[in-house]
């Protein structure tokens, strides 16, 4: 028998609980504030947007939350997801390091997003909601919610950033195949959208604007709620099934990670893999370095300010204490659309402030070089977002080659690039640059923050 | 514990041999003929195109062929592939039938094609070949060979039908990401291509023309061989790992198929799943109905002639005894590009003539309706090709609903539609018709055959 390529859990061994990291932290994260009163918000403030079950999960102090059987049933369409040992990449690099990747591209839409879309659709359906609204950029989150809504018989209405709506029709077609309605944002359908279009009829939109439109619609329309694909506590909670599975798979492998790397946009992919390992670290059962990777074009953790800011452009959301570049910051149009968010999960931000994780920003050229190397050795063409983590992983493996260290590296491969292939085309044609954020642009954007 | 959604084999249980159905048939298939002498061709006739190992596999009478360890090592990047029980589809249909699907979309390129691309690249590399040429239509086969060549350090040169090259840039980008060179066909690079362009400078190409270009290049260029993605015995041999795995998975499920449905273009997906079950049927160990599904636009088995014909347009290949619509037949541009081949695997054709399998042609509207229903229940958006089998599967399940029969249906889900989403867009917009082949067009095309 050859050495193993992948570690697969049986369906019966799929974790039946999500993990909430908050009770294990030395102190709790600062609460969201009402923008008018600047007092901590309560459940009633969130009720127009979210069902009670999700509001309860947002603020729970329980360490574990049971995964409903109906959600597990849908998860089993692709979960448990595989943990791979990247033997062919290791060989190509000539490194003594052992590289593992947890692959979420096996989901119906090709990323980790359905891990939270499915429970969000389930809890809304269970409370009688008929329709969900959301925003999406490149479309990973929108297609995940479209799939989840199809599964539980909900209508799904998506505002997609117009630049992506026009340039990336495949994601829109995926959402429509799952039965969703997709609008380009800004749209004439909401006051937020109309205000933007009045000021700039040719606006190509932004994630912050699309959030404003979806939130506004959910707050006003009957029997309609809003769903967010990252940033919030309950979203990260749902994603912890990734890390819980990975822990079991490392047991099968008889190995323990020394370094864990994941990319961060809103933080849900990173948190999903990292939090269960952070629990083990805090309990003294292992001691991995945990490292967040972000694009140099949108360096929230490494160069943003830790301050209260809005989650959207129009200022309709509560104020969140997070690392932010300013809620009207619009990053360069890098291909890693999922990492182009001005803020960061408040929970990840808090954990970063506590010194429990590291962060590093990286340019686009190294990312795509890593993506191509990975594709040609491991066969999977990684989405632009996780190439940030892969580039860091390869750097670490090459350091090991110099030092001779047999480090164990774990990376979150949160999706494939089937619908992002033009990004690889641009890289192969030499049309990718690093897009590092200029100091003066950053300073100007941060100046507006408290 | 809930009922199982999928049956996963451990890597250690991956079959280590391919199955050759020929020795188990009541009579062997008619041999390929040299177009000049009309005598059976020998190994020397194939040597300019294929390595010795593959020529030996093309004519072997051994029942089993060992899978080289190097090939198994690459297979393990995605194999064993899952066998799913389509419980959510069953529930939506309200059928007492039990529906299973063997899913090949988990491969790096999203289809079953790498099952043969990998061994083809391996045997060529082992015999010192430096470069492979091939043709591709929509691009599934070209991207599989590009991936396989990257794995074994071979150059890969692909002639892609110009209509697809222009309309479906994502597949070309995938091939290029794996390191392949892609030419639109017809091209100025070959005599075959130049002849077509001289007659019709605006030619958008065909699979037959692209085969001519790739074969011509392989026969002339140094240290270069040709690779074919379907039709031939060795290709179907490699694909039998699908059926061998499925047999083991049915043992895990404690079930036995009554009906097996698969789509047929060149025949490799269908043969790959069906042949191991046909062995069991011939040995009296089970008795499934085995049914091939083809598009009404290209009804090779159901309306073609069983005759000796060329595999390509220019007449560069040996003559193959097969069900054919004529080697210059150009089917309507249906979205199931993989089913638009004028001929059929000689082995499948022979088995059909022996009465061991059934065949049925189906229109495009039923196919896409089945694809959408499947996506919204099972989460996977099926490639246009396997929607033919899914439509038949759903018909069978609905018959069971009427009769109350608890039939067990197995279908080959050979790939996903991530790079075919515009086809779903056309269906949702009402722009899909059945494309049944008119009698007079068929009669004219068949008139040229012996």
Automatic annotation (TrEMBL), chains A, B:
Residues 77-415 form the Tryptophan synthase beta chain-like PALP domain. Pathway: Amino-acid biosynthesis; L-tryptophan biosynthesis; L-tryptophan from chorismate: step 5/5. It catalyses: (1S,2R)-1-C-(indol-3-yl)glycerol 3-phosphate + L-serine = D-glyceraldehyde 3-phosphate + L-tryptophan + H2O. It comes from the Bacteria. PROSITE patterns: TRP_SYNTHASE_BETA. Its EC number is 4.2.1.20. The beta subunit is responsible for the synthesis of L-tryptophan from indole and L-serine. This is Tryptophan synthase beta chain. The gene is trpB.
């Amino acid at each position: 028998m050859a050495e193993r390529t992948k570690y697969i859990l049986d369906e019966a061994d799929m974790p039946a609980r999500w993990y909430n990291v908050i009770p294990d932290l030395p102190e709790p994260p600062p609460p969201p504030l009402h923008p008018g009163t600047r007092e901590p918000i309560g459940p009633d403030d969130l009720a127009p947007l979210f069902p009670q079950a999700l509001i309860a999960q947002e603020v729970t102090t329980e360490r574990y939350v049971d995964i409903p059987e109906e959600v597990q049933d849908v998860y089993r369409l692709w979960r448990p997801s595989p943990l791979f040992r990247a033997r062919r990449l290791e060989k190509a690099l000539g490194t003594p390091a052992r590289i593992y990747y947890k692959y979420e591209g096996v989901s119906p839409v090709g990323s980790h997003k359905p891990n939270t879309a499915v429970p969000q659709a389930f809890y809304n359906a269970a409370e009688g909601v008929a329709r969900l609204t959301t925003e999406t950029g490149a479309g990973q989150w929108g297609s995940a919610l479209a799939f989840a809504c199809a599964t539980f018989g909900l209508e799904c209405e998506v505002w997609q950033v117009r630049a992506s709506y026009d340039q990336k029709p495949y994601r829109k077609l995926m959402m429509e195949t799952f039965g969703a309605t997709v609008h380009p944002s800004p749209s004439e359908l909401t006051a937020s959208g109309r205000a933007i279009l009045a000021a700039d009829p040719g606006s190509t939109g932004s994630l912050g604007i699309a959030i404003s439109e979806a939130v506004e619609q959910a707050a006003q329309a009957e029997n309609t709620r809003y769903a967010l694909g990252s940033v919030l506590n309950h979203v990260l909670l749902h994603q912890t099934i990734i890390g819980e599975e990975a822990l079991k798979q490392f047991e099968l492998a008889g190995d323990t990670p020394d370094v864990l790397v994941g990319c961060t946009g809103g933080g849900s992919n990173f948190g999903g893999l990292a939090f269960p390992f952070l629990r083990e670290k805090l309990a003294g059962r292992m001691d991995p370095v945990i490292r967040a990777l972000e694009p140099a074009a949108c360096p929230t953790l490494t160069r943003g300010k830790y301050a209260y800011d809005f989650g959207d452009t129009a200022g309709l959301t509560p104020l969140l204490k997070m690392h932010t570049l300013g809620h009207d910051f619009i990053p360069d149009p890098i291909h890693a659309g999922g990492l182009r968010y001005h803020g960061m999960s408040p929970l990840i931000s808090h954990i970063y402030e506590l010194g429990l994780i590291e962060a590093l920003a990286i340019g686009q050229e190294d990312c795509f070089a890593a993506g191509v190397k990975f594709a040609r050795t491991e066969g999977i063409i990684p989405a632009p977002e996780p190439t940030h983590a892969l580039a860091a992983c390869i750097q670490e493996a090459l350091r090991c080659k110099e030092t001779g260290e047999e480090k164990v590296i774990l990376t979150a491969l949160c999706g494939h690039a089937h619908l992002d292939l033009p990004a690889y085309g641009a890289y192969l044609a030499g049309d990718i640059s690093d897009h590092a954020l200029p100091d003066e642009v950053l300073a100007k954007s941060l100046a507006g923050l408290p």
